[in-house]
């Protein structure tokens, strides 16, 4: 720091002295020039004439002519110029600029009868203010509204003139002007003008035309809307047909045209054939209600018919073949229905519906049919086909079919696959038996009727529990019996062993005498309460519990008990099949009879927790039920999924692991979870364990085979989510490569395999939570890891192989600071005429175990001292390496490197000096308050040599007066440098050798040193001084005041700006100056003048004056102080000797 201050004190004054010296030179030079100007006298004034300006005009034969050659004109007749200006120059600028411009014109044409209503919108941009005339067109039109302008301005319509009826209307508008600019409009924004007019259409045959016009040379957009489909347009060739933004309505013809304005000749006609070919797409929504009696079915269909394309006026409805149309008592006003004659029944039984007028809107039609010819069925039943009301040609038909039956008839049907049964709301429709939704026609439902007086109805619900060896059945039968029914109830058990029959007191069951598989339930007499009931039915509920031993393991079919045909099914029978825990069941439709899988109910049962349960529905007309099942033995299984997050920190030998295990048991029950505890993890390092969010305490089991932790699972429901939080030590595998290993808790599955429980492991999702990159390594060939894109530093590895995980994390390796901080550096270069020896000294701090140093080229005879002790080293070319045995307890280490150069390498006039470079070194980090942190270069040279400069370094020397002369002296001598470096003292160099000192901040590299012999410098500068003095002595004309002034300025400036060089030059020039002065003195002392003998005559004053040359006044001032007589010349005397 002190050295820096000294450099600053030595540098700043130099720059200031140099600046003052330059200012002084400028002032002296200015004074000299001023004196010369004053001597020469005042310059006389001059009068100059200004030239007249030059004008160039196109002139030919004395007349200004356009296009002629330009000529210089000084004077020209004013009339000719005025004529040329008015007739030629002014017409160049256009006079009639447009006062407005059209942005766009939009015309919307709606055809109404024989006329067209056109709404036209004009958008203009005014260029000037005041009244402007705007053409509107619309010839042969009649205005139907006032002209509307936006913004509102004053305007009036100019009707077409008689002589120009083809132009159409015009509009005069007054555009307001700006306040400060009279001719400019108020705002150059578009003005919208809207006009509504009526134009008569003209027709020629089947072609209709519209003849009018719009403003010419303007972008016009025409939108034509005709309320009739099938129009074919024709127009001028210059018009362009634009695409429509959306499809037109079916009853309209729309076209968009774009053209450049002018006459609008638009023609169109209608193609009747295309109208005929367009088909009608009908959409039908129906509500069909069939009232079923024993021998009659009356069906009323309410149809809502609409068209999706064009209007319709009639349609046909196909009904059942044996149905008869029943005409309404009051005919409807908007439509008529009549049977359609179809000879030979080619089209079936159809009805024709004719509307009063064509329409596309929905039309409600009511049709009533009657069926009195049933088809005979089994056991005296009567069969009808109901629900067919098919609108011919319609592809969109949906609706609902309601079946209504009287109390005296029993109705049975088979549920068709094309219909969906709908839930019935009580009281909505009286005597409603069923409701079905259909989405197409024909939709038919086959029903069977039977008088209710002799029919018993039964509703069956079964719950079947199927095992590998036997099955258990719980059947719930609900009988609905008429009051007149007194027969016994018979149930065919199909080989099932009865465990319990509960009739709730309505009957006493007994086995059949003829068939042991049947049970008979004689009906008991009605109680008093049942006798007093007015209901036409009595209800009896039975519950049967039975068991069936399978003849073979895993049977393929099972038959269920079923009432014999004395009772008809009532509704749909349901069967719920529940498997035991050791099997899984699959429904086999190809082996079943009378069953249909109810997927929605099966899915609800599965979601409610009844695993593997399926729900079946039996058809009401089925008398015997055969259920086909596939029994699959269930293997107990445990699926284990795991996910772990490992937190790594630099310098922490422990890793924090958040481990999550998910146990999903299937067909097995687990009472506890067991995990393996690695040797490197203690019980105390397991911080917390949560099972399904509940804290659980574990038990350590230490066996010879290993340590385990057991956690109870009895109080929670599966699946089990086990969250472990523990610390795992980081084991170092290869520190140089940054490879480590951690241990994780793993599930123990040996006891599960002993219990024949299969274990499936899902891959472990392992995440390293650190900002650095971590690479997971594979310890074996079977161990494969693959990355996932879920989050960084995440891999998935096999779930049963993660007890120990190897990974690469170079950031965990302890970082050693191998930098070398150099606090002080001193390079001593000792030079002779043919030898050179260097001494490099470093005061440094480092934690490295060895140092690598690069020496300068050709360095030899190397010696290394570490803290004053010579140290062995290895050398490879100019690189040396040595180990650091011990560090200095004080915190600072000293390194000395001595080396020499080959013989013959001595001091030269130009040299390059480099100091040894320590690898990974930081030089120039001095400590505050100490004379350190800098690099010093000390050059010891012979006394007859002078070191002039060292590039890129600061000079650490000053001139002092010693022994009668100025001498260069370093600011720091060798003793001071050795004390700063804290090294042992070296024997001093002879006092006759010259010492130079330079400093810098940072390493000493590529320092170019310039030196010279003092004898050469003395001869050079002394010779120059001697030659200068002799030149001034023998050339009297050079002894001018200006020459001496410039020389004085140069010497003073050099002394102030570069005092060091001034001192050196002064010292080296002393010999030359002394020799020059000595020569001049000797010349005056020993010069001899020979006497001249000549006649001397007296001269008059006039002759004396005439003999003296006349000097100009300008030179008298400059040579007033200098004699013009040459020093060596002799003046004639009067004859007396000197």
TrEMBL record:
The chain crosses the membrane at residues 1016-1034, 1041-1058, 1064-1083. It comes from the Bacteria. Residues 1103-1138 are annotated as: Disordered. The keyword Membrane applies. Keywords: Membrane, Transmembrane, Transmembrane helix. This is Uncharacterized protein. It comes from Blastopirellula marina.
